[in-house]
Design goal:
Layout: E1 11-14, E2 17-20, E3 23-26, H1 40-50, H2 68-81, E4 85-89, H3 92-102, E5 109-113, H4 118-123, E6 130-134, H5 139-146, E7 155-160, H6 172-178, E8 184-188, H7 203-207, E9 214-219, E10 229-233, H8 235-244, H9 246-249, H10 256-271, H11 273-289, E11 304-307, H12 314-322, E12 329-330, E13 338-342, H13 349-363
Parallel strand pairs: 5-6, 5-7, 7-8, 8-9
Antiparallel strand pairs: 1-2, 2-3, 4-10, 9-10, 11-13, 12-13
Helix pairs in contact: 1-10, 2-10, 3-8, 11-13, 12-13
């Protein structure tokens, strides 16, 4: 398999358009679900912070780089997600690797979804535990594998929250019920955090589960529209992270203007729950209109429409370009290429209908 290559050169010109080779196209790529990266209030806060803060603290938080704002941000995230502790990381990917380092000798048995993000698989490379892959979103397979665990197994199940490719959600309640009471569940909620659930707390809230044996890693560069990552969970988890995660101990933390922007981003998400309601309602409406196509992603709750063409993707790409839409064709490493359209609260109903018409025409 050839090495992954950079995607096409795209310049975002406004929240829902990109310029490619001199042509402006309607854009449904990326994961900025509320287009908060373009929000005036968020950008104004970052701009103001640039005038009075340094671009970098130029040191790790374990030495001289622990500005009080980082602790305030962690407290704010813990309140938003109603969890015991939150620990900032330089990105969502770094957050996952930090958990991998902190817990590498804690568990004896691991179950991981076959479609889990590559960062989760990378985080397990140094683990000596017995690792088994279970069929995607299949609690019956989980239950079958758990029966093989010895009585003293220290187990953990690992899954994505909202799966990035198609917007599907894992059956977290069923996983919890299939696991022994002492087992843990780690949800990498990069795409669900800020988006799914009544308050935007992500996959756990959406599924109605909680507890001290849950770990939630997330990206702050998607629904939150800024940058960074975080690890949520029990205070004991934070202790292990600070003691054992070398990637946190030796890493330069987030630029302080971004942290101030994140504060405003969270405030906006709390003040505007209707953004989530409208986005998911519009997403459901579009998927119903596209139902005749029979694509699996049309049955998922997240605001993502995706399709893996059985053959040449060029006809669909041509149809989309003719309609003035950027043909978001993604090649996830190790998987066939697929069209992936991320809907956002920044798209108008007319733009969503236009996408639907173009997809129907391209598939026909």
């Amino acid at each position: 398999m050839s090495a992954p290559q950079p995607g096409p050169a795209l310049m975002q010109v406004d929240p829902v358009h990109v310029e490619e080779k001199g042509r402006v196209l309607l854009y449904f790529g990326g994961c900025d679900y509320f287009r908060l990266s373009w929000h005036r209030a968020v950008r104004a806060v970052v701009k103001q912070a640039l005038g009075r803060r340094s671009l970098t603290v130029a040191a790790s938080r374990t030495t001289t780089g622990n500005d009080p704002l980082y602790g305030s941000m962690e407290d704010r995230l813990a309140r938003f997600f109603a969890t015991e502790s939150a620990t900032l990381a330089a990105s969502g990917y770094v957050a996952v690797l930090a958990v991998g380092q902190a817990l590498r000798d804690v568990f004896t048995h691991v179950l991981i979804d076959e479609k889990a993000h590559g960062c989760l698989k990378e985080a397990l490379r140094s683990w000596k535990a017995r690792i088994r892959v279970f069929r995607h979103a299949d609690p019956d397979h989980v239950e079958k594998l758990v029966r093989r665990w010895p009585a003293r197994a220290r187990g953990i199940l690992i899954t994505d929250g909202m799966f990035a490719q198609d917007g599907s959600m894992p059956p977290l309640r069923e996983y919890r019920d299939a696991l022994p009471a002492r087992a843990w569940i780690w949800v990498d909620d990069a795409h669900g955090a800020g988006l799914m659930g009544k308050r935007g707390r992500g996959a756990l809230e959406w599924a109605g589960v909680s507890g001290r044996r849950w770990i939630q890693t997330l990206s702050l560069g998607k629904a939150f529209g800024v940058y960074g990552g975080a690890i949520l969970g029990a205070r004991s988890l934070r202790t292990k992270l600070l003691e054992r995660a070398e990637i946190l101990a030796g890493n330069t933390p987030l630029p302080l203007p971004y942290v101030e922007g994140l504060m405003e981003s969270i405030r906006q998400l709390e003040a505007h729950p209707e953004w989530r309601d409208r986005l998911l309602e519009e997403s459901t409406g579009l998927k119903r209109a596209l139902a005749p196509l029979g694509w699996p992603s049309l049955l998922t709750p997240g605001p993502i429409v995706s399709w893996t063409p059985p053959g040449d993707p060029k006809p669909m790409m041509t149809a989309l370009r003719r309609a003035g839409i950027h043909p978001c064709f993604i090649r996830y490493q190790g998987r066939p290429g697929c069209f992936r359209f991320a809907l956002s609260s920044g798209h108008t109903r007319r733009q969503l209908l236009h996408l639907g018409e173009a997809l129907m025409k391209g598939a026909g």
